[in-house]
Amino acid sequence: MIWRNKPSLSLPRRQRGTVLILAILVVTLVAGFAIKASRDYQLSMARAEARWHGAQARAYLSGAESLAIYFLELDDNTEVDSLLEPWAMELPPFPIEGGMILAEIEDASAKINLNDLTDELGNSDQGPTSYTRFKTPQKHFLRLLQSFEETYPLSLEDAIGMLEAMVDWADTDDDITGFTGAESDYYQSQDPAYATANAPFTSVDELRLVRGFTPELMQLIKPYITVYTAGGMLNVNTINPFLLRTFNDAENLEPLAGEVAGQIVAENGEYASMEEFTSHTGWGSAITGELDTEYAAITTSYFLVTTRVQLGEQRRSMQSLLSRAEGDFKVESRRDVYDYILNLERAGANAGLAGTTNNNE
Fold first, then answer.
1. Residue 212 contacts residue 162 (beta carbons within 8 Å)
2. What are 332-356's pLDDT values in tens digits?
3. What CATH number did the domain enclosing 190 receive?
4. 349 lies in some domain
């Protein structure tokens, strides 16, 4: 009888180990692909949600802007604008599903407009500090720069040098203004080097790039300056009382004393006419000549609307510059701003909605 070995169904031990390793690798790869697919799906969903909330937030901003315009159009008296009018009142946050909306209307003419200051300076036989070199808005700014005697004292010569640098920053030539202007040669020598704008100012923070405007000085003057199309006026009914120090007679480039300016604030909250403003008894002891009101008005042509929206984890803020002509409003410009976090949280706290804010921005 012939015996034959039956074939074994089991593999050698070494081959069994190899198969086990391959099986583990396959499981690992499948698990990795599954995790990646799940992560990509979740990321896609998060992006879609962010885009959706972002589009919603943008729509809310646009709607809030339209509502602000409607609110301003309700003002029938366009001959006087003051902080006593409804548009100037602080509005509470408006709750929406998943968040809230904030809206604020400001008189853009309540501050000195940087683009009113960049006209070419004149030449005077009386010297570089002569009042004849400067237009009225420039005189206001020179007085403002000198108004921080205790915290940041500046002489008239220092202030003029900084104004000359501003003119050079915005003009289109490369000729230095006066004795203390600054053109591209100066800025190219800085580390890092940068170029002059050779164009009107687009933001208040741009002034930080101009020679002489240190962070300390910017912190002081920022509440009193703004940027919009050239050609505005200072509304004496809405300005910060501190800016009353920038008024004087045309030949005097020094600021008024603080205590004198405080006496000129309207007693009832607004001046009904420029004559009422100029005839205030406080001017008699404040100035020696005739009050220069070429840059002053009791009404405004520009309003700044700031809208802020929080929707889910989306936070958006937009500023719109509105111009008013014969009662009609036009949006001159829009820009996104990034100062909404503290304002939103403060408003939420005031309205008892602080729990809806997201601190993990």
1. yes
2. 988 888 754 444 444 444 443 333 3
3. 1.10.40.60
4. yes
